[in-house]
Write a structure and sequence with these properties.
The two termini are 21 Å apart. By secondary structure, the chain is an alpha/beta fold. It is globular. The structure holds magnesium ion.
Amino acid sequence: MPPYLGESQESVQTFLKKIDLTQFSDPSALADILSYIDGIDGANNAAKAGFDIALHDLVCQVKGKTLAAFYGLEQTSPLTSFTIGIDTPEKMVNKAMEAAHNDFKVLKIKLGTDHDDLIMKRILEVWNGPFSVDANQGWHDADQALDFTHHLKEEGALFIEQPFPKDDLEKSRWLAERSALPIVADESIKRLSDLNNVKDSFHGINVKLMKTTGIREAFQLIQQAKSLGLKIVLGCMAESSLAVSAMANLTALADWVDLDGPFLIDNDPFEGVKLKDGRLIQSKHPGVGAKPTPKNSLFCE
Ligand code: MG
């Protein structure tokens, strides 16, 4: 569990123990059940997402549908970006070469340092493909950000994610009005209730299941954001194949896909989406498209 989200294995277990489903007899009453789950408390978004994914898996298996079909969508095989985390320029260059070696066709480069120009220069010496930039709230000077955005556009960037601190919506709006590249919100938006607040400060939003409390609200958020003309990034935290495979079912609605969670961890207790030529390949079986991997010790009890 990423500690910066305020959730731990212990907090998830405590939350799950509070759930009492005896009042429900039909698992397909998703709206009622998930609204009860959400009302248990005001936090625990990842724990709620876990429950939401499990419930969707059950209902889709009963109905014999993929999660995509359950929401009336086609499964697609989009390119996913591979994230290059903040590190020394040398290590980031090595990661970019490793990504190319592993057949990823798109990079997402984390910036927000005082030497972003050097990092970009070094990475672009070894990377010719498309890329996006995630400043992770790390930029502060608006004029400098605008200049850099023009430079990144010339270098072939797709979009800029979360340039400024999450609450600095005015600065983001200023940049969005001038930027040659789409400006996408990540930390500035977690749930559907945040959409109204950020819609005029960005060109798009990064939707993640661990922020939205799961598939159901992610789907609603995506639909409403699209109706406002916003672009959609489908993203993830450091996540197992379970959440990423579930989210992959919504890729028909995405402008860009950043579902690389399972490729960034080495203790994945599930298997689901696979990578082929940089594209996500989904399971055609009913359900969310992932299953426990028996070899993992988590399932040896
Ligand atoms: Mg981000």
